[in-house]
Structures are given as structure tokens and as C-alpha cells.
Amino acid sequence: MSDxxxxxxxxxxxxxxxxxDAVARDLAAAGFDVVATAGDGPQAVRRAQAVSPxxxxxxxxxxxxxxxxxxxxxxxADPALRVLVLSAxxxxxxxxxxxxxxxxxxxxxxxxxxxxxxxxRRTAAGDPVFTPGLAGLVLGEYRRLxxxxxxxxxxxxxxxxxxxxxxxxxxxxxxxxLSYKQIAERLVISHRTVQNxxxxxxxxxxxxxxxxxxxxxxxxxxxxx
Length: 225
Hints:
Elements: H1 3-6, E1 9-13, H2 17-29, E2 33-38, H3 41-51, E3 55-58, H4 67-77, E4 82-87, H5 92-100, E5 105-108, H6 113-124, E6 129-130, H7 134-146, H8 151-156, H9 165-175, H10 180-187, H11 191-205, H12 210-219
Parallel strand pairs: 1-2, 1-3, 3-4, 4-5, 5-6
């Protein structure tokens, strides 16, 4: 267990007490600092604002306030917050709505404890994390959305930034949910080179973090093989 993992502040939100307690227990046993839990939407917003977690493990189906609204409010107030949705639903609309509301990851409840622990760790590091299969689903949905006219975006972006072929390649792999390490291995370049490409791309696109970069990529359908 690393010191970094011990310092990651996590909050678990789910309306089923047994499930919520089990997830919190697994994460605490893995060394995460579980700072709070909540069982409904309003309680989740209040407690998260009070304890400032770094990662919110969030169910979508909550009484009082839907999970997507909880996500939208909390990420709006604290853009540094990472949200990992842990849901029983793999429906297209639910996944898409969660990402649009600010979630950086989406894991099905069928995931095992080790998969959850790894997902929380990667979410805290800023990696987009999706249950296998869902990343492609999200990319496909965004590609379809991007094919429709977007009045606000088009007026604000009169000219697309020019990215190099390698920057576009790295961006495409980021959009698919690969970690920096996986991208480095795939392209046979160093981890540092991947980071440099991402930083250069962020600068050219005037984006502030990797989450925004992923959204930029998936909105433009950068998921070609």
C-alpha cells in the first residue's frame, strides 16, 4: 500500500446501506481514506461540501436528488473533484448523462473489489476509467452528438487548433480511456513523452486538465482505429 493511496480522500454515495458499507469497507481496507458516506442526493451534496473528498464513488439512482445532479453540482463547485459512477445500469443514456454531468469514470456494480480499487486509484490520478465496453459506447454516443450542429461551440471555435499526427494519436488513445503507461507501451515511446504530448495538446486547445481533454476528444469522435 502506497503513501499516495493512503492520502486519497474518498466518499461513497449509495442508497443501499449494505452495499454502501461494503464498498466503503473494501476501500478503507485497501488503504484509502474514506472520509464520508451518504445515502441520498441532498445528504451527498452537504457532506461532500463539508469533507471535500478527492474522489466521489457515486450511484446514479438516489432518492431526493438524482446522481447526475449531485455530480453536476459538486463538480461545478469544485472542478478538481473526480467522480467515479458505480451503477447497476449500463444503459447508453445513463452512461452518457453521467459523463456529461462531470463524471470521469463509469463502473458497473458487477465489478469485483480489485477492479473497484484500481478504478478509484486511477480516477484519483485523473485517468478516465470505464467498465470494458462502455468507453466505446460513450465515444460512439458523443460522435453522433458531434455530428449535429452545435451553435454555441461553433461560434466560439471558428478555427480548429492544428495538432500534429502524433498529438492526435495520443489524444485518440486518451479518449479511449488508456492510461499514460498503456499509451507509452502502445506507441513505443516513454511515459514522459506521452505527458509532453498531452501537455502540448492541452495548451493548443486551451484546456485545463485531462478530463477536459477527454471530453474534447470524444465530442469530436477521435476514436478511429
